[in-house]
Automatic annotation (TrEMBL):
InterPro entries linked to this entry: Transposase_11
PANTHER family, A to Z: BLR1914 PROTEIN (PTHR30007:SF1), PHP DOMAIN PROTEIN (PTHR30007)
Annotated Pfam families: DDE_Tnp_1
Name of the protein in question: Mobile element protein
GO BP annotation list: DNA transposition
Annotated ranges, domain Transposase IS4-like: 7-109
Recorded GO MF terms: DNA binding; transposase activity
Length: 113
C-alpha cells in the first residue's frame, strides 16, 4: 500500500463522531500501523489494532490516567492525511455539503480525489 491511497470511507450524519466508524473501516485490512488523532484514543480501538498485529500510533488523551507512548516520527505522517482533507475542502460543495444527498456527496468526494 502506498501512503495517501484512499482505502475506504463511510459517510455518517453530522452528529456522529468519526471514531464510531473506525473499527468498521479497519475490518479485514492488513497494515503495519494505524495512525490516528488522539480523538480515536480508546481501549477498544487499540485492542482491535493489536488483534490486527499492527502498531497503534495514537497519542493518549489528556484524561487518560496512564499515558500510552506512541511513535512520534511515524505520527508526523498524519499530516499527509490532513493535507488530503484540506484539498478536498477546496471543493465548496464538499466542504459545505450544500447537496444533502449521500450519493451526491460520495460522488463529489470520489471526483475530487
Amino acid at each position: 500500500m502506498l501512503w495517501g491511497d484512499t482505502l475506504r470511507f463511510i459517510i455518517t450524519g453530522g452528529q456522529v463522531h468519526d471514531a464510531t466508524q473506525a473499527s468498521a473501516l479497519l475490518e479485514g485490512l492488513t497494515v503495519d500501523a494505524v495512525i490516528a488523532h488522539k480523538a480515536y484514543d480508546s481501549n477498544g480501538l487499540r485492542e482491535k489494532i493489536a488483534v490486527m498485529n499492527a502498531e497503534a500510533v495514537i497519542p493518549s488523551k489528556r484524561n487518560r490516567k496512564v499515558s500510552i507512548p506512541h511513535d512520534q516520527d511515524l505520527y508526523k505522517d498524519r499530516n499527509r492525511i490532513e493535507r488530503c482533507f484540506n484539498r478536498l475542502k477546496h471543493c465548496r460543495c464538499f466542504a459545505k455539503r450544500y447537496d444533502r444527498r449521500t450519493t451526491h456527496f460520495a460522488a463529489t468526494m470520489i471526483w475530487t480525489t
